[in-house]
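Margin note: ligand = xanthosine-5'-monophosphate.
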Amino acid sequence: MITAAPGTVEVEGGGETMEVGAERVLILDFGSQYSQLIARRIRELKVYCELVPGTISVEEVRRQHPRGLVLSGGPASVYDADAIRPDPEIYSLGVPILGICYGMQLLAHDLGGRVRPAAKREYGLAAVVVDREEGIFSGLPQEMPVWMSHGDVIEELPPGYRVMAHTLNSPVAAMSGPGGSVGIQFHLEVAHTPQGSEMLRNFLYRTCGCEGNWEASSFVEQAVAEIRRKVGGERVICALSGGVDSAVAATLVHRAIGDQLTCVFVDNGLLRRGEADRVIDVLTRSMRMRIVRVEGAERFVGALAGVVDPEEKRRIVGREFISAFEEETIRMGDVPFLAQGTLYPDVIESTSADTFGARKIKTHHNVGGLPQSMTFSLVEPLRYLFKDEVRRVGRALGLPDDLVMRQPFPGPGLSIRIIGEVTKERLETVRSADWVVIDEIKRSGLYGKVWQSFAILTPISSVGVMGDYRTYANVVAVRIVTSDDGMTADWARVPYDVLADISRRIVNEVPGVNRVVYDISSKPPSTIEWE
Ligand code: XMP
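Resulting structure:
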């Protein structure tokens, strides 16, 4: 990922719905913290789905021909004056609806039942007892743990509905009605509801009749056709960062339009050892892409001289990237399209429920901060994918595993892994230490199992003894974390022997280092990077 200054340019036209075959489910978002998780769970079951605002119009829903609708949870109560509500006509579409928590209360309230505040808020694990083993409960045990988080309960079912399950505190923990619609009071999308995926599978496959045709290979075919349609005979530019997302996006665009695509790789001198060469080698030799390599090490390291503040480092790297990229595009002449590897979580984050419908997407940090004079139409073929799906698409496109499974690496690169001033010498020190960490983590088979593993060059010098000599040299910290998405993380319980090998090799192989420490902080309260 390329990091630049915060976005200032608004680009229209990135938000059209992607055609992905007949089978799709829409999740109407009412502001639950779990909405994105529902999308991930449905995709894991190989059904294509999209998160749309809860207020989506019935015409728009009709246009998309969904096989099913999911009404998400949300913080509101159906009786709040400002509660977000769906278009009432969605209930008459004849499409099965799954209402989760607030979504269930909407179903009950809007279809003529009654909802009231519970005597006491139900939060946490509960045992759900199934009264009717059918629909979403088909083939499941009669009693199961589920995760509850609600303040309202259903007092009276809407006409035509019946109770499917109850808990100690909720007489209506699940209800079903005409046309396969079902409401559940608990959250099936969270890990605390172990049978949640099975329930969702039942809804998608049994009730909605989905077949599960959401595969990386079918995505590739459709995305290629879509890119051709959008770009026509025009030229496209794509900035490669060395990471998975931009490499997969570029490969997809290249598959669609061949040499109409030019990639720009700005080597900022802040990358890991051999990284620039490896990416360029794979994409030019096996994929035959046209890549312009801009040698920027002198420029970036020069601009960072004397800077110690982490945010200032980020700004400088962003600014220098933009200048280098701009110079290159001017040289290339008229290029109307910019391809980038924006992922679905970025799209969801940068598009609030209110602006969702308008589909006017702000360029976020990927290329945010491009000057007003540089206006591009965006080509974002990965904008509906999650990270694990991008990796599968990368594999389907024939990219090698070491590129596709690469750990995330921050845009400002090694500059934020040197605490204090960035110099060529200190860059070489942290790069060599990083190489050892990655090498040992790969050798021990842990590379794909941890989220990130790397070295930090601290500003501390410590006393040591090597041979008969006293040394006074740098302390390197090693950070290895597990995480699902980088938002929270834990330090990895790596076997002591692996840590011992890393430490021994760093001290022996990296000049100027005599001590290695292991970072045992989780996020929060620490962050993954030190700067
Ligand atoms: P933190 O340090 O905030 O990192 O816990 C979370 C994830 O984000 C990456 N990271 C960055 N990525 N530009 C990026 O492209 C940045 O400025 C940046 N800072 C942190 C970090 O490597 C981790 O995966």
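Residues 1-20, 352-368 have pLDDT under 50 and may be disordered.
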